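INFO worker-7 received task bundle
INFO bundle size: 2
INFO processing item 0
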Amino acid sequence: MKKQLEGKVAIITGGASGFGEAMVHLFVSEGARVMIADLDTAKGQAVAAASGGDASFFRCDVSNRGDINGLVEACVARLGVPDIVVNNAGMTHENRPMLTIDEGTFDRVFAVNVKSIFHMTHAVLPLMRERKKGVILNVGSTAGIRPRPGLAWYNASKGAVNLLSKSMAIELGPDGIRVNAICPVIGDTGMTKKLMGVADTPENRAKFMASIPLGRYCRPSDVAAAALFLASDAAEFITGVEFPVDGGRTA
């Protein structure tokens, strides 16, 4: 049976851990060659090594235009022109009242979550337009659909990602380029404690899970499976959607 991403080249930002790491492993298992971008060199190299040679690592601050340009150039040189780009790298601020979040934190959240997509689009779009094909997946969040209190600026950044994805889909459709947003609910990742805003105890986890009809947190494998589908030819007529991976949270 043909693998779903056979012969494809993908860039996955934030690929050293969490949702991104799960995407790397699944994409490689389905035939893709993957360029992993992350700030954590040790973890990124370890994920690349575990891929069995079908992934490569590039240290990258996604908020830096020079780093993004270098990432795309390295991808083309090592693996080929990217068919798929997953803008997965993200960050949050502590769950606190909005006026207690300082300007520097606000700027960093928007630089990593939103401006990074601006940089990546400038770097990869000319390549995709030349080939008249491509897939861009932006990892938004249910926070941009149904926000939780204490995360105002993070919610706003993910709302921007969600709407930006729709805007990109409309503009880039004539170029044969599909753009979708993947919107996970809270998951067991490195950002969980910040998103919760309370002690990470079984009791507090139960409160969060009570808002999810399927009764559990989002797993990295859930997001990876959604990304695989949206990146594959099976989704060739799907673009401009906010794709909730949320166990019914936003239903």
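INFO item 0 finished
INFO processing item 1
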Amino acid sequence: MGGGMVIFVAYEGFELIANAVPDIENPSVNVPKAYYYSIGFVILLYLLISIVTVGSLPFSEIYDAQDYVLAKAAEPMLGKIGFTVITVAALISTFSAINASLYGGSRVSYEIAKDDELPHELSSQLWNQPIGLLITTILTLLCCNTVDLESISTSGSIGFLFVFAAVNYAGYKLSSQTRGNKILPLAGFLLCIIASITLVIQQAQSNKLGVIIALSIVLTCFVIEYFYKKSETYLSRNK
């Protein structure tokens, strides 16, 4: 179960492809292609990296260098230059992930605002970019500089699991409209709920702050949405 959850984290970024749907031509054709091609390529890449790493280093060294194991695996073949190249590649990969997350987050707030599920002002643009990008960036910097890394990681994982549970449940409920499989999204929903409960229980014992932050963020989102919809209903009735 623990290994499955770790692997799950490695693939959770693919949902960002769906956030780009409004900017993609012929999304009904191109989005499935993007998912199949990218996930297939990444699976192949991960397998090759695993084979090379295990073939280059004994398990004791892999365990000791688990935070920088790829750089360590390149060292026997390419020396210090290989170690440095992999380290720089890891930094670039991190920047890329941050950039993709910011883009995806800004698109989500933009699309939700267009559907009037958030204030319509969030669909405005600043410097030719959705204003949600600026808000997301400011909040991200604020969290990174005021909250410890473990609490941020826990909050992010719980948030991802809640979102994926909701998306899978929607896939299950709308399967007749999307002509999709009912069993897979239902299984995904149940597994996400189980993983969420497991994570909350485990982190509550070692990182209560992270759990409190994560649950507070989720609760705040529901409260804001509740009062926003209430205000929208009130204003529409009194026009």
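INFO item 1 finished
INFO post-check item 1: The chain has two domains: 14-146, 149-239.
INFO post-check item 1: The first helix runs from residue 2 to 11.
INFO worker-7 idle
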